[in-house]
Design brief:
Layout lengths: L1 H23 L30 H4 L21 E3 L1 H5 L6 H7 L1 H4 L8 E4 L2 E2 L14 E7 L2 H5 L8 E6 L2 E14 L6 E12 L2 E12 L2 E2 L19 E4 L8 H7 L5 E3 L7 H6 L14 E3 L1 E15 L3 E19 L2 E6 L12 E6 L5 E20 L2 E22 L2 H8 L14 E21 L3 E2 L2 E2 L1 E19 L2 E24 L10 E13 L3 E15 L2 E12 L3 H5 L3 E10 L4 E9 L8 E12 L6 E14 L2 E2 L6 H6 L4 E4 L1 E6 L3 E2 L2 E17 L2 H26 L30 E2 L6 E2 L25 E18 L7 E2 L15 E11 L2 E10 L2 E4 L8 E4 L2 E11 L4 H6 L6 E8 L8 E3 L10 H4 L5 E10 L1
Parallel strand pairs: 2-5, 28-33
Antiparallel strand pairs: 1-4, 2-3, 4-5, 6-7, 6-47, 7-8, 8-13, 9-12, 10-11, 10-16, 13-14, 14-17, 15-16, 17-18, 18-19, 19-22, 20-21, 22-23, 23-24, 24-25, 25-26, 26-29, 27-28, 29-30, 30-35, 31-34, 32-33, 35-38, 36-37, 38-39, 38-40, 40-41, 41-44, 42-43, 43-46, 44-45, 45-47
Length: 943
């Protein structure tokens, strides 16, 4: 059945673009326009994709007095700007993949997710652009957190602005397969999409399906934990009193107190049990436990944009995604009391038989369905820009977790002496917990931004955003036969204002010694129906003493309420969760309780940030970024931390012990205070690489421009309109091929570098893709080399759990997670190189080691978390830019093949205790189940 579903899905993805094109093809042919043809240096159409640029035309052309299209208003310049050539050097297919690759540059000093703009305007959300092919992007601007305030967002989010091409079209198909080199699991993904962009009109549809098989503990050589209850498929016997000898007669026969005895084969006898005294049977359960569950995912995303009412840009987006996960939790253990007076017992006293019921593992099944619809309206009123955003989101999650089997009938039969606990137990009824939650949110907000007045140093800029949201959250759970329901609702109304005041401006001869200086302030009042009033206040300075240096300083005070999920998620109980207990220094299998905590309170934060951006050379693409952050949060909301002595003393009601740790309630909590400070600095470098092909192409491009200029001047001298009534040259990357759009008889034929359409053809939505000089974006050659290096130094990081308790220093022996303390140093290095369509990408991440002293005072329960370095490598080739290959294999036009290797050296963090032994819970297979993963991707753009 699964294969049939995948086959149908692939067929649907393959036929959808053709069906859509047939429906949208116009019935009236466009008029033919004859243009001159010039031989291309490379075979036409050999480009990588419809609508891509070449290296030559990818460079920005600066027009004096005019800002590039899609520029974000204001005097804060981008920290990083990417041209089409830069984007291609990453070797990624979609905006979503590009955002992932740009993670170091997009990382906010306070951890907020980036704000996404489209053409300098607020978007309908990330789903509006996530599936666009990177060839549709003309420019990417990455701006600091302060710019988010201008668009009505909080100041803990960086801003990334995607400037789209005025004209672009493509059909996209992509296949990807991957697997870890250690084996055990595999991943397969198929994706198809179409894009049409024609100035203010835009339509794109994307369908995606992905399946990942599970990975078992046995496939990573995991050593099972044998320190808990001695369950086994054959069984073991223990006393009814924990830690006491099983039976006096057995101890006498064995010559030593017998705490546990293995069930022998055949008919159980006292002598048989004596042979297995204190040597229990052990079943390897690793084939019945997953490190990563099997996952299937389907998603569909659609976007439609156009102008309405003449000058209002409207965008509608919809997205649906369904995910299903199946995990194995081990074998169901049963404990049966065997009376000493039954015919099946060789003992004089009662004992407990501990065994696994069968070889069918316990399972957890989870399904999540998310649906989203959003609307964005953008327009202008004089010097003011306005935006209205509306959205509706709904998420449904259901979970079924098997906890064990019902042995009540079997126990009754054993007690009555009618059934042997050592034989086949038959098909026992599984007991399971169930949980379901539904969350929905609807919101509407409006933003207006512009210049309310002018000062001697320039125009003041301000923005006002008003917003209203309503959210509902319901959850139902059935845990150990006890039903529990939660229903929460929250209505929110807020208003946020921001203003920027220019103080100095050397260009206007106002306080020239200061260069450019502006002050900004922002405030927000938010009314929550269930939490009262929350406020936010911020202020800062933006100073550019000289062109090469820019300094940003800001202070913000924010109050934040817990989410409804943190308050009301359903209780879920999961058995046999492997956990390291710092208090005892052992790895144990415990029952964990997850869900919401209705007792959470709001947090209050104060953040100081200093940012410095330096571009030492105007003629070189090199920039340096320095960010210092100091943060203090009162009542921070945290997931339940690691099981240390300090945490247990502060939250004793969260732990259940019976000799060993049995259960942990991991629902979120409030700490009293968290203080941290860090310095993050980085350098970005990019340089264009010229080749013989790119130089030939640039020469032809200049020749073409001279021919057009001469033709235009000749026509104007004769009083005639320019040839073809052509519009002014398009922005970089938007030009047609040198052949233009040659139209003539013969239906739809492609001329050199252009696209000829005759009466039988016609222009679809948005017209041809516009591949730049060279036809379909190919043949330009050249390349680019780039690199970025970011280093984060954690200066302080402390947490106060409760007043009166000592502070936890996460840089010096304390921890709030199972992954260790806070690394003092983290380094991210990214580099790439492309040349004539062939490129590579290298990613290196390194973090320093930490130590955790988790035991009670004077104890030696220390864990050492070693440093970790991982390397990722991607090799890719735009086959369409290889003339010799495409000349005889035209089906390769617009195709790309890439090979990606994650964790190239299969590195995993090493964790040891004070004696140098790796705890069971920190085996390499647990820390990074997949290790090195190889992925092969083939992508093709049809046009």
């Amino acid at each position: 059945m699964r294969m049939a579903r995948w086959t149908l899905l692939i067929l649907a993805l393959g036929t959808a673009p053709g069906a859509w094109a047939a429906q949208t093809a116009p019935t009236t042919p466009a008029p033919a326009t004859a243009q001159s043809q010039t031989p291309e240096p490379v075979e036409p159409g050999s480009g990588g994709a419809g609508g891509t640029d070449t290296e030559s035309d990818a460079e920005e052309i600066v027009v004096t007095g005019r800002l590039p299209p899609g520029t974000v208003p204001g005097d804060i310049k981008p920290e990083l700007q990417l041209s089409p050539a830069d984007i291609r050097s990453y070797g990624v297919s979609s905006v979503a993949e590009l955002v992932t690759e740009l993670a170091p540059q997009l990382q906010s000093v306070r951890g907020g997710q980036p704000v996404f703009l489209v053409n300098g305007r607020r978007s309908a959300g990330f789903q509006e652009i996530r599936d666009l092919p990177t060839e549709a992007i003309l420019r990417v601007d990455i701006l600091p957190e302060e710019v988010a305030l201008k668009y009505g967002y909080r100041s803990d989010q960086k801003v990334i602005n995607f400037v789209l091409r005025p004209r672009f079209r493509s059909y996209t198909g992509e296949l990807q397969g991957g697997a870890p080199t250690d084996g055990g699991s595999s991943n397969f993904e198929v994706e198809g999409g179409l894009v049409r962009i024609d100035q203010d009109k835009r339509f794109n549809l994307n369908l995606q399906a992905e399946t990942t098989s599970n990975l078992l503990e046995s496939e990573r050589g995991i050593i099972p934990n044998t320190s808990g209850t001695p369950f086994d498929l054959r069984g073991n016997v223990t006393s009814t009193v924990s830690g006491a000898p099983v039976d006096p007669t057995l101890s006498a026969l064995a010559g030593t107190p017998v705490i546990v005895a293995a069930v022998p084969t055949g008919t159980p006898t006292l002598a048989g049990f004596a042979a297995g005294a204190n040597n229990p049977n052990i079943t390897d359960t690793t084939p019945f436990r997953t490190l990563t569950g099997a996952t299937d995912r389907l998603s569909a995303n659609g976007v439609y944009a156009r102008s309405i009412f003449g000058n209002v840009a409207a965008t509608v987006t919809t997205r649906v995604e369904h995910t299903r996960t199946e995990s194995l939790l081990g074998l169901p253990g049963v404990s049966l009391t065997l009376p000493g007076n039954t015919p099946f017992s060789p003992f004089a006293s009662d004992v407990i038989v501990r065994r696994f019921a069968d070889t069918d593992p316990l399972m957890r099944n989870a399904e999540t369905t998310t649906a989203n619809a959003a609307l964005a309206l953008n327009g202008d009123i004089g010097r003011w820009r306005w935006t209205v955003n509306g959205n509706y989101d709904r998420t449904e999650t259901s979970t079924r977790t098997e906890r064990g089997v019902d042995v009540s009938d079997v126990q009754s039969a054993v007690t009555a002496g009618a059934f042997s606990p050592f034989g086949d137990l038959g098909n026992l009824i599984r007991t399971a917990d169930r949980a379901k939650s539904v969350s929905s949110a609807a919101g509407l907000n409006a933003l207006i931004a512009g210049s309310p007045f002018s000062l001697p140093a320039g125009d003041a800029n301000s923005s006002i955003r008003v917003a209203a949201t309503t959210t509902d959250f319901t959850s139902d759970s059935l845990r150990a036969g006890i039903a529990n329901s939660t229903s929460l609702g929250r209505d929110t109304a807020s208003i946020r204002a921001n203003i920027d005041l220019p103080i100095a401006n050397a260009a206007r001869d106002v306080l020239s010694a200061l260069g450019r200086l502006s002050l900004n302030a922002n405030a927000e009042v938010e009314q929550l129906s269930d939490f009262g009033t929350l406020t936010t206040l911020g202020y800062g300075i933006n100073w550019q003493p000289i062109t090469a240096i820019r300094l940003l300083a800001s202070v913000s005070h924010e109050e934040n309420a817990p989410t409804q999920q943190q308050l009301g998620n359903p209780l879920i109980t999961t058995p046999f969760v492997r956990t390291f207990d710092y208090v005892s220094g052992t790895t144990v299998d415990v029952t964990t309780i997850t869900g919401g905590n209705p007792d959470l309170v709001s947090s209050d934060s104060r953040v100081i940030k200093l940012g410095l951006n330096v571009k030492p050379w105007t003629e070189r693409d090199i920039s340096l970024q320095f960010d210092y952050t100091d943060s203090r949060i009162d009542n921070p909301i945290q997931s339940f931390p690691a099981i240390t002595a300090d945490i247990q003393a502060a939250f004793p009601d969260r732990f259940v012990r019976g000799g060993t740790l049995l259960s942990v309630d991991t629902r979120p909590i409030n700490f009293a205070r968290a203080d941290s400070s860090q310095l993050r600095w980085g350098i970005n470098f990019s340089k264009r690489v010229t080749t013989a092909r790119s130089r030939q192409f640039e020469a032809l491009r200049q020749q073409r421009m001279e021919q057009r200029r001469a033709a235009r001047e000749a026509a104007e001298a004769n009083g005639a309109p320019p040839p073809g009534d052509a519009p002014p040259p398009p922005p970089p990357g938007e030009g047609r091929g040198p052949g233009g759009e040659g139209r003539g008889p013969g239906g739809e034929g492609r001329g050199p570098g252009g696209e000829g359409r005759g009466p039988g053809g016609g222009r679809g939505f948005g017209g041809p893709g516009g591949g730049g000089f060279g036809g379909r974006g190919g043949g330009g050659g050249g390349g680019r080399i780039w690199a970025s290096l970011y280093h984060t130094v954690a200066l302080t990081n402390t947490i106060l759990i409760r007043p009166g308790l000592p502070e936890l220093d996460l840089l010096n022996g304390s921890a709030i997670s199972d992954t260790g303390g806070q690394p003092r140093h983290q380094v991210q290095f990214n580099s790439g190189y492309t040349r004539d369509g062939i490129g590579s990408r290298l990613v290196v991440n390194w973090q320093s080691g930490t130590e955790v002293d988790g035991g009670a005072a004077g104890a030696t329960q220390r864990l050492n978390f070693g440093s970790l370095a991982t390397v990722g490598l991607r090799l890719f080739a735009d086959l369409g830019q290889q003339p010799a290959l495409v000349r005889n294999n035209r089906w390769l036009r617009g195709s790309r093949i890439s090979l990606g290797i994650d964790n190239l050296f299969n590195a995993r963090q090493r964790v040891t205790d004070a004696s140098g032994v790796v705890p069971i819970n920190y085996q390499p297979g647990y820390l990074d189940p997949n290790g090195r993963v190889i992925r092969l991707t083939f992508r093709k753009l049809f046009f």
